[in-house]
Sequence to fold (343 residues):
Amino acid sequence: MSWLRRFFAPAPARPMPRASFERPAPRPSAPPAASASPTEPSLDVLAERFQRFMLGLPDHRAEENAGETALLRRLQIVGERFDVRSLPRLPAVLPQLLHALKNDDVAGAELARLVGRDPMLVGEVMRVSRSIYYRTLHSIQSLQHAVVLLGQDGLRRVATQHMMKPILQASAGAHGLVAGQRLWDHAERCAHASAFLGRFAGCDPFEAYLAGIVCNTGTGAVIHLLSLEDVVSPETLSPIFLDGCAELGARLTLRAARHWELPGAVIQALREHAGEDASETPSPLGRTLQVAHVLSMAQLLSDHRVIDACSDLSQAWPGRFAPTQIARCQQDLQHQFGAATRA
Fold:
């Protein structure tokens, strides 16, 4: 269990060896591309590295792990019995605030009154409003001024971050400091990418942001469950095992979203993400979330130097988003988060 002790220690985890990364292969109908080196990872390998990174598992060694089937089944059984009522409840003021924000004519004084009922949220609103992004000629002296300055979209995002950050950081267990921070790092990037791409798919901006920020919530529970197991030779756990963990995490995320009564479009996107909806035509938010999840995976692994700088992924989803839209999203992610872990 020494590998888990290192993962759950407060000190930053040592980065995995870098992997090169190539553009996804073109569709079958496209002209044959030059053959790639068998050592260069595809999107499937990228997903595998992401799962190992999030679960704190060492790099894969191609040997059979005789106990992984039983281990995965134990995780699934415990996951099926998981009581969603044990999840942290949303701050009481948040549903009221989000409901009020649906009204474009709501007064700033009313929003300030709702925010003022949560001292922690007040502090976060004031902090963000005084940041460089919202810099004004005059200093922010009142909560109402801060609320008006942020606007409805900004206030929704601040409130959602206030809700989800402590939940994600604590979801991996009492000692999962590294794991919780990784979950939050991914959530920030995925929410940003989902909101960015959602504009091109006709999604509600806040629902797109919300879907991205909650989409990996259940992974924290999987990390916690795995930490309770005596895993033999974790480096031999196969991609099939990792896929099973990802599916379990997605199902737990969906249950959490239903427990929190998130908007219907978000629930549907998470159903598709969890494989509960086998429709050939995903919803606009469902396809947005799928692409945002992959782009944020690649950006996070690059930020933590698990892989080299990401290649252009603009051709990966030609039937869902225009290459220029994907490229702009990647550039925006790099601009917003690229130097976060290197500073």
